[in-house]
Amino acid sequence: MPVQQLVKAGPHNAGQDEGTPSVIARCLSNFRLEVDGQAVSHWRAGKSRALFQYLLVNRERFVHGDRLREVLWPEREDHRSSSLKVAVHGVRRVLNEFEDRDGFTLLHQDHGYVLRTNSAWVDIEEFQRAFDRGRNAWVAKDHDTAIAWFQRTADLYVGDFLSGESGDWINEQRQWMRGTALRALTALRTEALEREDWPAAMHWCRRALDVDPHHETTYQTLMMMHGELGELGRVLSWYEVCRHRLRTDLDVEPSERTERLLATLMRGRSRPPLTGQRP
After folding, report:
1. Type and span of the H or E element at 255
2. Which residues belong to any copy of the Bacterial transcriptional activator domain (predicted)?
3. Is residue 42 part of a domain?
4. Phi, psi of 121 (to 5 degrees)
5. At CB < 8 A and 24+ separation, what contacts does 141-147 make?
6. pLDDT-based confidence at 9, cuts 50/70/90?
7. Domain boundary residue among 60, 86, 119?
8. Which residues contact 182 (CB under 8 A, 6 or more apart)?
9. CB 100 within 8 A of CB 20
């Protein structure tokens, strides 16, 4: 795919056309399953929605029924109830309503289930694919293509995985996707710094802090950029934000490197290099 088309790949935000899949599943930010642009809102069985979400993350992979019971009903010691069958029935009733769109297929086999995505577009699948292609292009030293794919990764990360929902498996998946987004944003920030495009680099820094407000390396980069621009008040401001968030939320102090950087910049001495190593 040409570099200039990477950012445009996937479903459009408004309207339906030939390039837009009829079935779309979104897990980044709030969960949403759409058919022909309309959200599916009726999940009849209590755990059917959660079951679909878990199978969606593990799409195309067999998941044993015992594992599904552990995930959906972690408080139960006896997993012999019929609750899983009820939840599966609820998922199938939803999928059957748009089976002519061939978006998903739920298969039962060997005491477990497999969710096939068929023609559906899934944001977390596209998110991981974009990052993997960016990483592969970077390793191949095709940095222009890599940056385009990392841009696509950042564009897809519109919020945390299943924002507002909880569960051990959700938290684990959320942390994994945050880390992936941060790696893409770090690459974009590094590339902007190498071009000495301070506005773009600051944009990617702010995006990184939206993902992880405790990412100390990002605060260091912001401090160095404002030091480069001679804006010592902004250097101090970003240091104070960093210190406050680390103290308040994590009960830790800024690292020795951050403290040394502040002292160096505030004294007007030569700064450390902005670009650093390529990620």
Report:
1. none
2. 122-266
3. yes
4. -100, 125
5. 143/191, 144/3, 145/3, 145/6, 146/187, 147/187, 147/188, 147/191
6. very low
7. 119
8. 208, 211, 212, 215
9. no
* Sequence letter at residue 5: Q
Instruction: For helices 65-72 and 83-96, give the axis angle rounded to 10 degrees.
Output: 100
**Rounded Cα–Cα distance for residues 89 and 94 (Å):** 9
| Residue 182 near residue 212, CB atoms below 8 Å | yes
**Domain hosting residue 80, numbered range:** 22-119
Q: Provide the number of structural domains found in the chain.
A: 2
Last residue of a domain, one of 96, 119, 142: 119
pLDDT digits (tens, 9 = 90+) for 139-156: 999 999 999 999 999 999
On whether residue 159 sits in a domain, the answer given is no
CA–CA separation, 32 and 93 (whole Å): 17
17 lies in a domain?
no
Which two three-digit tokens encode residue 60?
């195309």
- For residue 16, the one-letter residue type is Q
Query: What is the token pair recorded at 46?
Result: 């209590």
Handedness of CA 169, 47, 53, 37 (dihedral sign): negative
What's at 29, amino acid-wise?
A: S
The whole-angstrom separation of Cα 88 and Cα 113 is: 9
DSSP structure class, residue 64: E
In CATH, what number is assigned to the domain containing residue 230? Answer: 1.25.40.10
Residues 6+ apart with CB under 8 A from 66: 79, 111
Q: What is the pLDDT of residues 156-168, one digit of tens each?
A: 999 999 999 999 9
Which of 278, 273, 277, 279 is closest to 228 using CA atoms?
273
